[in-house]
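Morning F.,

Quick status update on the modeling queue. The single chain you submitted on Monday has been processed. Sequence for confirmation:
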Amino acid sequence: MPSLERKRADGGRRQLRAPRLRVDTPRRAGLDPVETDRLVREVRDLTAGPRPWAPGVVVVAGRGPVIAVQEAAGWAVRYAAYDAGTGTGVELPPAARVPMTVDTPFDLASLTKLCTAIAAMQQIERGTLGIDARVGACLPGFHAAARHGVTVRQLLTHTSGLRPELPLYDCADDEERMAMLRAEEPTGAPGTYLYSDLNMLLLQYVLERVTGRTLDVLVHEGITRPLGMTATGFGPCPGAAATEDQRRPWAKAERGMLRGVVHDENAWALGGVAGHAGLFSTGPDLAILCRTLLAGGAYGPARILGPDFTDLLLAPPGLGFRVDEPWFMGELAGGGAAGHTGFTGTSLVLDRATDTFLVLLANTVHPRRQTPDSRPRAAAATRLARAVHPSPSGA
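Structure tokens below.
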């Protein structure tokens, strides 16, 4: 972990000040420019051709306090609709398309879970929430979770046994949605890993109960505002990259082409603020979050978590974060790399062993969701790993 610079504060107290990010060359970041050039070229290629991996992509990568790669390619908005008859997108005229830029906001989808997890760790650090607290003690109305002794730790590690999701989008109103959540029984044995959006939804309600504040306020006050992540927040976000022409049968709701409103149907049904989805952000803002975690929870004069709690968040098996998963981390995996992916095409990886980070944002669901393919994510992460440790062959 990088050293932190000490600075005298008022009254002679000593505080930690972590270096802020700056844009510089790969060499200044301690990265091989040949490999970073390959990373940029391969990311650009992801948007090429009639059936690209994504219409548009943004990549931000660096090492230490240096952003060495910032690149945008393709389109933030390319299609007006999806034609189910031909199985292709209905392209907008060139003049009506919106080019992708490094500062284009994206619907983060499940990257939202990372901020929910950080918000939970902040309460654990403050002592207002126990990591092994029972959900039923915090939320007495959630009888099913109470009966099964579901804990905060199980929510954070996806070991509660709750199924992946519920059709909250089909409920008539919020009362029916909450009744469904309160009655939901675990379908798997407690302690067994089963990735579930419901874990972060329940964690959201736990946080809101113990703090008396809504999740959007907790994220803003505890994470984005102190870190200066001014482009990050829950929607609506009118300038965001477009996502999907959301219609049945491929989607779960009839909403048409989406831009600037949350893609996830359950988060939409819950008003756009949910523990598992709903945040919008940019590549540079997410780089700040990565840098903060790599620096033990500090960025500039701000500290959002103590080093011990940051370590607890990122250490195996990860609390909200996935750890060492090669299917999207490529060759960065293996030394304790942590990160996550999002259904809309978003991902981030931070590797404390090499002090590197990679943010790869894409609108892969534009104009219609497809079978997820994380090979480009893994390939980009491998390029960054090889920029730190170039392979003998230079491949």
